[in-house]
Every structure is written in structure tokens, then in C-alpha cells.
Write a structure and sequence with these properties.
4 strands, two-stranded antiparallel ribbon, Fumarase C, Chain A, domain 2, mainly alpha, elongated, two-stranded antiparallel sheet
């Protein structure tokens, strides 16, 4: 979280908006903002002075010092409150508990990162829609279990990426991010009135919870699940790009940039580094989300370790998915598509299904299948089995229509947002 080793060992997020929004400084700011929102809400009900929130607005606390001091209480809010009371007086944090502030700060951080992720997913989806539209009819080999199968189009492949990204974006956008306020045991006992809860949520800009959720960790788990779906959708694109960019295939290439993709040992190489970084994030996020799901077992009215275990994986999920989304927007916007190479890679046996179907009209299905299989074994061009040349437009099935279907669905989503 400190923006040093985390970035060195995880370049997918380095220098991104998500990195800044999940930094230690950002978390400290979110903690202070949560305390200030509580003070503003309490002031609206006459419970504390208006001066408290104003004094908190200018508070500055060193994250490194706060982290060391957090060891005494097991969380950073206790030393934070002590420091803030020196600035704004004893009314800071009146009636609240540490988890109220920490959970609210987590939702504030998540809200900021989610906004950047959704924007980058929008850019990625727009780029994919453009690729699908331009290459609606561009033939290429479909591949199943690592082998060429039947012809498809690159437009359909891009449309599949688009659909996955758009659906993952919708899931992430739909997640509710609630404020947290319950006091010592979730009863609002020392906070004076239940009327404070909606006011606090309003002051934070977060959703109003039905109840305090100190040990009801669905908000965190649900966000984690949505982030994992985004990571998976982006990881799928990255995996396909890596496979299609292989030297022996060479059907796509990452956008070129000075110094990008170089090898420390082999000067001829242009490595798919953007896709590789996205994959690195996609492979880690599900593992971190497992911890968020496990933390739902928190007992009674206050977690003993589950809540604490969430903090770092929660932040890592936001950082990694944010970095992957920004990287994917760059990758898809500049992806080089090589139709000539796609056509050259189309092996003759990919026509087998189509030719067998045509021959079945006069020979019957079983005989046609055997005729085609024998021609493949003998290395004879399958086109010779028909009386006319084969038009690839007839071989790609309904791929172009499926592209149109995906584009129409995406256009409908955009109009409804």
C-alpha cells in the first residue's frame, strides 16, 4: 500500500490512476474524510460544533508514522483519532468506533477507484466495438483446444471481448458501496440518534446501509466478486492477444511504443508486455477475492481477524484491476490487426465442415464425411471436391450476424446509461 515495493513488483498498476487512488496517502485522506463527514452529519443535528469538520479538512498525517502507531491498537483509526483530536478537539469521532471509519474509508477509496475503472472499461469497450465493426467479415481461423477448427471472423472475436467487458462493467457499476456507522456494537448507542445514519451516508456520498455491517461483509465480498469478473474479462483479451501474437501465428500485434516489449537478451524480440501485465493482474485477483469471501465468517458483532485480513487484498484488488483496466484501454485502442496473415493461416482442412455439408446434399452425410476425410488424409485441396470455387464469406457461418447482434446490444447499453 505504500507505493514502493508494491509498484516495483507489480508494474501493471505503476503510474496509473488506480495506483494514486489506492496509495497510503489516499487511504489516510479517506480516513480523515470519513471523520469529517461524521462531524458534518453530527453538526447538522446539533451534536457537535460546526468547527470540528472545518478543522479536520486541513488535517495532515504522515502515513508511515500512522502505520507504526497502528500496531498498538491493531488498526490505524485509533492513532488517527488521537492525532485528529489534537487538531480539532475531543468531539472528533464522538460515538463512533474504529471500524465505522475504516470501513467507510474503504468504500470511499473503492468509489474513487471504481470511477476510474469504469471510465477505462468504457474506453476499452468503445475500442473493441470499433474492432468488431471494422473486422466484421475479416476471416480467420477459429481455434479449439489449441488447434484450428473452422473459420470465424476477427470481428466475432472482438465482439466476444466486447460483450464480456460490457457485462463486467455493468456488474461493477451496480455494486452498492455503503457507509458504515454503528458504534461499539452496531447499536448506535453512543451516537445519540438513528437519524444520524442517513445524514452520514449523505455526507460521504455513499449508499445508506439498512444496518451497520461490521460482521455482515457482503458489501466487500460483492465488490470483490465484481472486480474478479472485470479482471477475468480483461485477462481473456490479454490471453488471446498473447496467443495470436506468437511468431508462428502473427495475426495481431500490440501497439508499438519506444522501449516497449524489448528483451534484455534478445534485440529482435517485441514482447506482448501490455497483455502480459494484464494477465498478471487477472491471475492474482481471484486469489485475493477468496480472502474477502472467507472474511464473511466474522463472528458476533465485531470481527477478530477477518476484517483485518481484508484490508490488503481489498486494496490489491482495486489497484490491480484499476491498473489492468487502464492498460487494457491502451492495448485495445492501438491493437494492430493483420488480416493478410489471418487469411494466410487458414488451413485447407478448415473447410472440411463446409465441404462435407455441401457434398451431403448429393452423397448423403456419412459418405460425404468419408470423402472429405480421405481427401484430408491424401493432402488433396478440399475445394477440388466441389464444382465451384469456395467463397470464404459462405464458410464463416453466421459470424457477421453475431457481430451485429453484439454491437446492437452494446449500443443499447450505451443509450440506456
Amino acid at each position: 500500500m505504500n507505493g514502493t515495493s508494491a509498484d516495483l513488483l507489480s508494474p501493471v498498476a505503476a503510474g496509473t490512476a488506480a495506483e494514486a487512488a489506492t496509495s497510503a496517502e489516499a487511504w489516510v485522506r479517506a480516513l480523515i474524510d470519513a471523520e469529517a463527514a461524521l462531524a458534518r452529519a453530527q453538526a447538522r443535528l446539533g451534536l457537535v460544533s460546526d468547527d470540528v469538520a472545518r478543522a479536520l479538512a486541513g488535517a495532515r498525517i504522515d502515513p508511515a508514522d500512522l502505520a507504526v502507531r497502528a500496531r498498538g491498537a491493531g488498526n490505524p483509526v485509533v492513532p488517527l483519532v488521537a492525532a485528529l483530536r489534537e487538531v480539532a478537539g475531543d468531539q472528533v469521532h464522538a460515538g463512533a468506533t474504529s471500524q465505522d471509519i475504516m470501513d467507510t474509508a474503504a468504500m470511499l477509496v473503492a468509489s474513487h477507484v471504481r470511477a476510474t475503472i469504469l471510465a477505462d472499461l468504457g474506453r476499452t469497450a468503445d475500442a473493441l466495438a470499433g474492432l468488431a465493426r471494422r473486422h466484421r467479415d475479416t476471416p480467420m481461423a477459429g481455434r479449439t483446444l489449441g488447434r484450428q477448427a473452422v473459420p470465424t471472423t476477427f470481428g466475432l472475436r472482438a465482439a466476444g471481448w466486447l460483450t464480456a467487458v460490457a457485462e463486467a462493467r455493468d456488474r461493477l457499476a451496480a455494486v452498492r458501496l455503503p457507509a458504515q456507522l454503528g458504534g461499539a456494537a452496531g447499536t448506535l448507542a453512543a451516537l445519540g440518534t438513528a437519524d444520524l445514519l442517513p445524514l452520514f451516508a449523505e455526507e460521504t456520498g455513499l449508499a445508506e446501509p439498512v444496518l451497520p455491517w461490521h460482521t455482515l461483509r457482503a458489501p466487500v465480498a460483492e465488490l470483490g466478486a465484481a472486480l474478479a469478473l472485470v479482471a477475468g474479462a480483461l485477462g481473456k483479451i490479454a490471453t488471446d492477444v498473447v496467443l495470436l501474437a506468437q511468431t508462428e501465428i502473427g495475426e495481431v500485434a500490440e501497439p508499438a511504443a519506444p522501449g516497449r516489449g524489448g528483451s534484455s537478451a534478445m534485440p529482435h524480440k517485441r514482447n506482448p508486455v501490455l497483455a502480459t501485465m494484464i494477465r498478471s493482474a487477472a491471475l492474482r485477483v481471484p486469489a485475493y477475492v477468496q480472502i474477502l469471501f472467507a472474511a464473511q465468517t466474522a463472528g458476533l458483532d465485531r470481527p477478530t481477524g477477518e476484517w483485518h485480513a481484508e484490508w490488503q487484498p481489498f486494496n490489491d484488488c482495486l489497484r490491480l484491476v484499476g491498473g489492468a483496466a487502464e492498460t487494457a484501454a491502451e492495448l485495445t485502442a492501438g491493437l494492430e490487426v493483420l488480416p493478410d496473415r489471418m487469411r494466410a493461416n487458414l488451413r485447407d482442412e478448415l473447410l472440411a465442415e463446409y465441404v462435407a455439408g455441401r457434398l451431403a446434399e448429393r452423397e448423403g452425410r456419412a459418405a460425404a464425411k468419408e470423402t472429405v476425410a480421405r481427401a484430408v488424409r491424401e493432402g488433396r485441396p478440399l475445394g477440388d471436391l466441389l464444382a465451384e470455387d469456395i467463397d470464404l464469406a459462405e464458410v464463416i457461418g453466421r459470424a457477421p450476424e453475431l457481430v451485429d447482434r453484439a454491437l446492437d446490444a452494446y449500443a443499447g447499453k450505451d443509450r440506456s446509461e
